[in-house]
Amino acid sequence: MIYLDNAATTYPKPQSVLRAVSQNMQGANPGRGGHSLAIRAAENVYKCRVKAAKLLGVKNAGNVIFTSGCTMSINMVIKGLLKKGDHVVVSDMEHNAVMRPLEAMSQYGIKYTVASVCENDEETISNFRDALNEHTRLVICTQISNVWGIRLPVERITAMCHEYNIPVMVDAAQSAGIVNINMMNSKFDYLCVPAHKGLYGVMGSGLLVVRDPKNLQPIIHGGTGSDSLLLTQPEYLPDKFESGTPNYIGITALSAGIDFINSIGEEKIHRHEIELLSMLYDNLSRNKKIKLYTPRPNEKSGGVLSFNVKDKTSEETAAYLNSRGIAVRAGLHCSPLAHKHFGTENIGAVRIAPSYFTTYSDIYTLSRVLSAGSAR
Ligand code: PMP
Asked: N or C end of the chain: which has fewer CB within 10 A?
């Protein structure tokens, strides 16, 4: 099988990640005991927190919170921050991990405005600025579209929002691991990261980076292994947002995933993916039956390219590719706004998402199978 669905989760995982999973399948509960096994587990959790902080340019490792995934991280911000009457601005590239919690919050009187993403960054920033109002309490922006690979100017949007003292949450689901993120320079207020995509960890794990925890309330309360006489949630980090036994397997796998990224370098991983997608783009643009929507991938793009075969739904194309041993994702990718942006909400699109493990030969095979299939 040629796997090109790495935007959903990376596959295969590095051997070191698989080893970490099998070695840590059994272990004591980190931070929940004074015996050596629990202490060792707590040390491993701390080591991963420090590695993640270093990777993401976070000054204090305690500001890195372990979560069950990017969706959980996003929910923690939306539900832990917003109050009745608040207004939110989002881009028209957001995933349902953002849109559905926001819609759910409408029952509490929370409203939102969608700002359109344009090819020209100045226009995008101006659309965000125009969408702000006196009740805006949060701006949410994905760093890379999970459908179109478009990179949004999140650093500049953050700087603009900070002029009005409005915090910004960045969804780094498709950027962490291929884009250098530095929380100290970019000053994002909240960063939501899945561990199982570009960080090569396992599914069901993620991170939330919180720059200032003051206004954010926890949405889950419970045991932290600390201050147990207190019946209220500790106010300090990370305990404020980490209740219950953590996903130790996921955390140790993430630790190995970060080591893997550091051993290669985000820039090299990104370059590899862009070279593969540019080669694919050139092959597809020679095929008159293929419809492309975005410009040729370049150093500004993410590792995702979507297209359609004319007169076919995306599902038909994906089913054909699957029958030839190629795994891709069709449909709407949980991002209806991003599809409406390019008018593909009725047919979806075929998404190609390579990883560091994808080869030129994989992309050559895909191009060949597509030209044979579209000629039928
Ligand atoms: N945001 C974006 C842009 C995504 O692509 C995804 C995953 N498809 C998510 C959020 C949700 O991530 P997770 O499945 O890890 O919760």
From this structure: C
Above 70 in pLDDT, residue 376?
no
Are residues 103 and 231 located together in one domain of the fold? yes
| Domain edge (last residue) among 242, 264, 286 | 264
User: Which letter does DSSP use for residue 295 in this model?
Assistant: P
The atom of ligand 1 lying closest to the CA of 73 is 16
Q: Which residue owns the Cα nearest ligand 1 atom 8? A: 8
For residue 191, the 8-state DSSP code is: E
**Of 210, 235, 264, which residue is a domain's last?**
264
96 Cα to the center of ligand 1, angstroms: 8
Question: CB within 6 Å of ligand 1 — which residues?
Answer: 8, 69-71, 95, 97, 142, 146, 171, 173-174, 194, 206, 334
Give the model's pLDDT for residue 267: 98
Name the packing angle between helices 96-104 and 70-81 (round to 10°): 30
Cα–ligand 1 centroid distance for 172 (angstroms): 9
For residue 185, what are the domain limits? 15-264
Q: What is the mean pLDDT of the chain?
A: 97
pLDDT at 375 over 90: no
Q: What is the mean pLDDT of residues 329-344?
A: 96
Taking CA 103 as the corner, what is the angle to CA 98 and CA 104, rounded to the nearest 5 degrees? 100
